[in-house]
Amino acid sequence: MRPASIVEVQSREAVREAVAAGFGIGVIFESEFGADPGFSKLAVVGADLSVAEYVVCLEERRRVPLVRSFLDLLAATN
Q: Which of 52, 70, 49, 53 is nearest to 61 (CA)?
């Protein structure tokens, strides 16, 4: 079964508000679910739900020692 429509929101809070307003269901990380008796939690099994993470900084900040070390560490692990 496919949903009739999909709404993408950008934050955990926005997902919670959309569900609370009756838009349907939402997907968030279990660690961000919290304790709220108004919501029910269901586990999703058998699906690859990987998430990409990104690092962004201003070009001129790349020379800052802490930022440079962090970027070097990331480059070494990829």
A: 70
3-class secondary-structure state, position 64? coil
Tens digit of each residue's pLDDT (9 = 90 or more) over 31-73: 888 888 889 988 888 988 888 888 999 999 999 999 999 999 9
Query: Rounded CA gap, 41 and 46, in Å?
Result: 16
Q: What is the DSSP letter of 23?
A: S
CA distance linking residue 13 with residue 19, whole number of Å: 10
On whether the CB atoms of residues 41 and 30 are closer than 8 A, the answer is yes
Contact 19, 26 (CB under 8 A): yes
